[in-house]
Amino acid sequence: MENNRRVVVTGVGLISPVGIGTEETWSALLAGESGIAPIQLFDASGYACRFAGEVKGFEPERYIDRKDVKKTGRFIQFALAAAELAMAQSGLSITAGNAERVGVHVGSGIGAFEVIEREHRKLMEKGPHKVSPFFITATIANLAAGQISIRYGASGPNITCATACTTGAHDIGEAWHVIRRGDADVMICGGSEAAVTPLSVAGFSSMRALSTRNDNPAKASRPWDMNRDGFVVGEGAGILILEELEHAKARRATILAELVGYAANSDAFHTNAPPEDGRGVRRVMELALESANLRPDDIQYLNAHATSTPLGDLAEARAITAVFGKVKDFRVSSTKSMTGHLLGGAGSLEAGIIVCALQDQIAPPTTNIDDLDEECTLPLVRDKGMSLPIEYAMTNSYGFGGTNASLIFRKW
Predict the structure, then answer these.
(1) How far is the C-alpha of 189 from the C-alpha of 104, rounded, in Å?
(2) I need a labelling partner for 358 at 20 to 30 A (CA). Which of 13, 222, 298, 329 fits?
(3) Between 3.60.15.10, 3.30.1200.10, 3.90.180.10, 3.40.47.10, what CATH number should domain 262-411 receive?
(4) Which member of 161, 165, 189, 356 is catalytic?
(5) Residue 240: enclosing H or E segment and its boundaries?
(6) Which of 247, 341, 356, 376 is catalytic?
(7) Half-sphere exposure (Cβ direction) of 312: Cα atoms closer than 13 Å
(8) CB contact at 8 A, 10 and 246
């Protein structure tokens, strides 16, 4: 049985297609700037979708010793960079005296796609003796958490969720449970993904999941627009430092927000499509509200999952309307319109965005809505950030396999 230990946020680190760093990311989102552009990481000229949300100008050597870069997949590099930013903001010092009370809960949807592709090519072309000895540890999904734990000496619970596009939200929510039940006082948590690779983009394209708006990539991710035609693959990481309230107060940490609610459930319906009425999504939001002992009219802002897919956006819009349709002074947006969809990193990036929104009392916008789908009528923030009194904010994440999560944060 969990006790009533309260959990606060003392650090946020964001690495995204619109900025390297939390402040850069946040300011770009408020201005409605797009991070989506033609792919530079590989030659995509023969692809149906030739654009993505890449992290531009990322230099892993700024965060990792040069000799170790080749030993880590890009998703691990993003996670280490975001963790460094979050740890610096938190001011947390991990010592022999508190190391066992600090854990890591960081995940990835797939791990190092680019390393898998590279080493498989070596295997096929040059034989097994050419496969890197670092292949496994550079690739597997829990090595972002492992590398963070090793770097900081955090010897508490070390766990990874790999729940597709819900990964980042699940890792934060489950870290919340770890602290609430007393298994740790601090958790470094979130998700990271680096899936802008030939095989990944080809696979999503074959599913017809991706936008093919190659003539105007910056306008391709268009949640709730009548002419949306699929999502845009993004990459990056979001890491939060969660901390038990009294622990944070005792070390005089700056508290950024409080995490007050979390729920996870499943559609139990289809591998890659939601039920049309969005019932699983509706229910996970209701469960999150119950976990926080809140009503729908307590929430002022929702950062939706809305990825710009025809079916997914409609199902979520119906779910949001079912839960919040009668609430006044409530606003919704999808920042994926600017970042693209970070897959396993999406939920934690958007959780970090929620913390920024609560601090500045500004709701970030949805961009690229030229012709709103009449079946997706929501109280949207559009084009630029909107000043808004926000006491509580929610963020949603959903993934293949029907897995869902909602997180609720409170202004501190």
Answers:
(1) 6
(2) 222
(3) 3.40.47.10
(4) 165
(5) strand 235-244
(6) 341
(7) 28
(8) no
Task: pLDDT band for 1, please (50, 70, 90 cuts).
Answer: very low
**Structure token digits, residue 6:** 């309260």
Q: What is the pLDDT of residues 400-412, one digit of tens each?
A: 999 999 999 999 9
* Strand extents, DSSP E, 17-149: 19-20, 37-38, 51-52, 102-107
Picking from 103, 62, 66, the residue whose alpha carbon sits closest to that of residue 80 is 62
pLDDT of 2: 53
Q: For domain 7-250, give the CATH number.
A: 3.40.47.10
Assess contact for 370 and 227: CB atoms under 8 A: yes
Please give the model's pTM, rounded to 2 decimal places. 0.97
Q: CB of 378 within 8 A of CB of 332?
A: yes
Q: Which of 49, 247, 305, 376 is catalytic?
A: 305
Structural domain boundaries in the chain: 7-250, 262-411
Asked if 305 is an active-site residue, the reply is yes
φ/ψ of residue 37, rounded to 5 = -155, 170
- Spatial distance between the Cα atoms of 406 and 410, rounded to a whole number of angstroms: 14
The verdict on whether 129 is a catalytic residue reads no
Rounded-to-integer distance, Cα 393 and Cα 388, Å: 11
Fold matches, 7-250 and 262-411: yes
- Is 247 assigned a catalytic role? no
